[in-house]
Design brief:
The complex is a heterodimer of chains A (about 400) and B (about 325).
Chain A (H helix, E strand, L loop, with lengths): L29 H5 L2 H6 L22 H6 L1 H10 L14 E2 L5 E2 L3 E3 L21 E3 L16 E4 L2 E4 L8 H13 L5 E5 L4 H11 L7 E5 L10 H5 L1 H14 L4 E5 L7 H9 L4 E4 L3 E4 L14 E5 L4 H12 L6 E4 L5 H9 L4 E4 L2 H4 L3 H15 L30
Parallel strand pairs in A: 3-4, 3-14, 4-7, 7-8, 8-9, 9-10, 10-13, 13-14
Antiparallel strand pairs in A: 1-2, 5-6, 6-12, 11-12
Helix pairs in contact in A: 6-8, 8-9
Chain B lengths: L1 E14 L2 E7 L1 H6 L5 E5 L10 E9 L4 E7 L3 H7 L6 E8 L11 E7 L3 H13 L3 E8 L16 E6 L6 E2 L6 H4 L5 E5 L2 H18 L19 H6 L2 E4 L15 E4 L2 E4 L6 E3 L5 H7 L5 H5 L16
Parallel strand pairs in B: 7-8, 7-11, 8-9, 9-10, 11-12
Antiparallel strand pairs in B: 1-2, 1-6, 2-5, 3-4, 3-6, 4-5, 12-15, 13-14
The chains are: A alpha/beta (about 400), B alpha/beta (about 325).
Chain lengths: ~400, ~325
């Protein structure tokens, strides 16, 4: 048995809060969408074989974990006898299961590249209250990254072309894994590479390291000339790299989709079929900016990835499309800057969101979004946000957006 | 590093398109050291998603007042210039490594190009408070852009160079440095990259040119100090404050690097102050945003995005 801190045990032995509960993506079927969270929690765990056995009462406990730990049984009994939906912020449980036992206390993550390795913001942000941290893209060998300038602001967004600067997976494990292992918040390592062997090599090194809760495959970083984009835009390549990594590790595996494709649905389906536990959508859009005097491109790398509120409609469209064709959880990324954006993505079928660019302007935003989401649930008398997920999805699959902008009478 | 809620006390336009704003932020005023900067959140003014870095111009712990000096270069700084007394600002800071002054040094030479003076102003205050002698060399395009001496401490010797000769020395501020390099124990500079590069060249040849003796029992040998450490920076003759377009300002995004001899260096974390020998000047000049053609000829003026909005237009 690997000593992984992510293991969520039942009962009072849990190191983390014992209030975790499985929330199935509500869009798996019309029945699931209308189900009460109580029955969702009790459903069999067929889709997540590696997930720990669900405590039958865990889902019904009030989330004030510290208080409950002492009087665990009594509180559970009490909660079980009460109606599931009790108004009041204290009773809302935001836990979400991303598969293979990767259970987050809340669905607000910080996106890769915007939060470093979780230590940079110091005491400005209480990292323990974030759902999970996706760390900076990590490669097998150290990379120095692209020539500066690497970032610039654009209308309602920013361009970046960092070029995957990182000290290499060995240095990342050596410097940060011990810190991560001491945290309650799961750390998901973002993995990038130029070949399938690179990805597998990194993931093998991460497998079994205490403090590493999962991996997110960056198969779509648009900044690496060789490899990089090829995996994300090609269905077979994306499937191959996912399958190879899946075979190499038991860690929860998230694959990050690129928006720079004409139809994302076959790629998403291929990745899901290849064994990914979850999808994150989307990476940055390819773009560029010019120098103020228009004498050439501004970024040292010429092209950069666009992020921020500017890309939210694109990301929302992709989440909406992908949610209709896959059964695994989707983590939405793209321009989340407020609670409305979170609710939009949930309605479009995502079960969690990552906050990226907005962290730069407001480092405490992820923590605030958690509170606001809890307040929204409480105001609607919900004890989890499950009923908010997938409410905007159509009853039957709609045509792909590749045809969506055509005139239709 | 912490978030503070700063209230604007007073704003003054000191030069065309250049402003000094005084804010009440007591914790920041006590914590900040010369050369450090703050990351300021702009209002959501049709989608400004990034904060703007500004070096702290002056800080008075007694009154809790901090000032920033910036040039209006884009939408972010334009928004800031429209702040009115009583408005509040979300400020993250203090950030970065400040200037390192060797406690034994008595003579400090400050070299500023344009709005780069903002980075050196607090250093001048601190040095004068500590009883050091300070000379400030200031370069500008013409008389209309010369920093008003009324805003400088009386104890400081202020020497101006303008490119058209309308005030002071006619030419570049770097021309003046040779007159003071023997007098100075340490030099600190902020300004456009071409200016800093010339200064770095002067600093690199200084020991040989002047025949400076290395004193002390170990003749300057002693234990080697790692490059980039505060000790190494204290030993260096010239420290420069660098600028780059910036994202997070805490070292997470790796967006604001400049090229150092040991690879990319984050301006927000390892910098913004570097010893001049840490920077790979050839690579930095190559990747620096080339100024407009007229600027390229005349180093000291250039658009100085540094405190005036490294990140933004």
């Amino acid at each position: 048995m690997k000593a992984r801190k992510r293991v969520i045990t039942s009962g009072g032995k849990a190191k983390r809060s014992p209030t975790v509960r499985k929330i199935k993506p509500a869009w798996v079927g019309p029945v699931a969408r209308t189900e009460r969270p109580r029955s969702t929690a009790a459903r069999p765990e067929a889709a997540t074989p590696a997930a720990p056995r669900a405590d039958p009462v865990a889902g019904l406990r009030a989330p004030d974990a510290a208080a409950d730990l002492a009087s665990g049984g009594a509180a559970a009994t009490l909660a079980a006898t009460e109606p599931a939906a009790r108004p009041g912020a204290g009773t809302v449980d935001l836990a979400v299961d991303l598969g293979r036992g990767l259970v987050l206390e809340n669905p607000v993550l910080v996106a890769s590249g915007t939060f470093g390795y979780g230590v940079e913001y110091g005491e400005v942000v209480d990292v323990q209250r974030i759902g999970a941290i996706c760390c900076k893209g990590t490669t097998l060998r150290p990379r120095v990254g692209n020539q500066p300038p690497r970032v610039t602001e654009t209308p309602a967004g920013m361009l970046n072309s960092i070029g995957l600067q990182n000290p290499g997976v060995d240095a990342v494990i050596e410097r940060y894994a011990a810190i991560w292992a001491g945290w309650q918040v799961p750390v998901i390592v973002n993995v990038a590479g130029e070949s399938i062997e690179d990805y597998v090599g990194v993931v093998r090194k991460l497998d079994g390291v205490p403090g590493v809760a999962g991996v997110e495959l960056n198969i779509s970083c648009p900044n690496v000339g060789k490899g990089g984009l090829q995996f994300a835009i090609d269905r077979d390549a994306a499937s191959a790299v996912t399958r190879a990594v899946r075979a190499a590790t038991d860690l929860p595996l998230i694959v990050k989709l690129s928006p720079n494709v004409s139809d994302v649905r076959p790629i998403a389906r291929a990745i899901a079929d290849a064994g990914a536990d979850a999808l994150s959508a989307v990476n940055t859009l390819s773009g560029m900016a010019l120098r103020p005097d228009r004498s050439g491109p501004l970024l040292g790398n010429v092209y950069g990835g666009l992020s921020g509120p500017a890309i939210k409609p694109v990301a929302l469209r992709i989440v909406y499309e992908v949610a209709q064709v896959v059964d695994i959880p989707i983590i939405a990324i793209g321009g989340v800057a407020g609670i409305d954006d979170v609710l939009d993505y949930l309605a479009a079928g995502a079960v969690a969101v990552q906050v990226g660019t907005a962290v730069f302007a407001d480092p405490v935003l992820p923590v605030r979004l958690v509170d606001e989401l809890r307040a929204v649930c409480a105001a609607r008398g919900l004890d989890s946000y499950g009923p908010l997920v997938g409410t905007a999805l159509p009853r039957r699959p709609v045509p792909p957006s590749a045809k969506g902008v055509e005139y239709r009478p | 590093m912490f978030l503070s809620d700063a209230e604007l006390i007073e704003a003054r336009r000191i030069l065309p398109r250049q402003w000094i704003q005084w804010y009440h932020a007591p914790a920041l005023a006590s914590a900040v050291r010369a050369g450090q900067f703050v990351h300021v959140r702009t209002g959501d003014w049709s989608g400004l998603v990034l904060r703007r870095p500004f070096t702290v111009n002056t800080a008075d712990p007694a009154t809790g007042i901090v000032s920033i000096h910036f040039r209006e270069v884009g939408r972010g700084t334009a928004w800031l210039a429209h702040m009115r007394a009583g408005d509040r600002l979300d400020v993250l800071g203090p950030l970065g490594q400040g200037f390192q002054v060797d406690p034994r040094n008595r003579h400090l030479l400050l070299i500023a190009g344009g709005v780069g003076i903002a980075d050196l102003r607090l250093l001048a205050d601190e040095a004068i408070h500590d009883g050091r002698q300070v000379v400030l060399l200031y370069g500008a395009r013409d008389a209309s852009e010369v920093y008003p001496s009324s805003l400088l401490p009386d104890e400081l010797e202020y020497v101006v160079a303008t490119e058209d000769g309308s005030v002071g020395h006619r030419g570049l501020v770097t021309d003046l440095v040779t007159e003071y390099e023997a007098w100075a124990d340490q030099a600190f500079a902020c300004g456009p990259v071409p200016m800093l590069r010339v200064l770095a060249g002067i600093a690199a040849g200084r020991t040989k040119r002047l025949g400076v003796a290395t004193l002390g029992r170990k003749r300057g040998g002693g234990k080697p100090v790692p490059m980039g450490s505060p000790q190494a920076r204290r030993k260096a003759f010239l420290q420069v404050s660098m600028e780059q377009r910036m994202g997070c300002a805490v070292g997470a995004c790796l967006g604001c690097v400049v090229w150092g001899v040991d690879g990319p260096q984050r301006v927000c974390r390892e910098g913004p102050v570097f010893a001049s020998e840490e920077i790979d000047w050839e690579a930095t000049v190559g990747t620096a945003r080339p100024a407009a053609p007229s600027d390229r000829r005349t180093a000291p003026r250039t658009r100085r995005a540094a405190p005036a909005g490294r990140a933004g237009r």
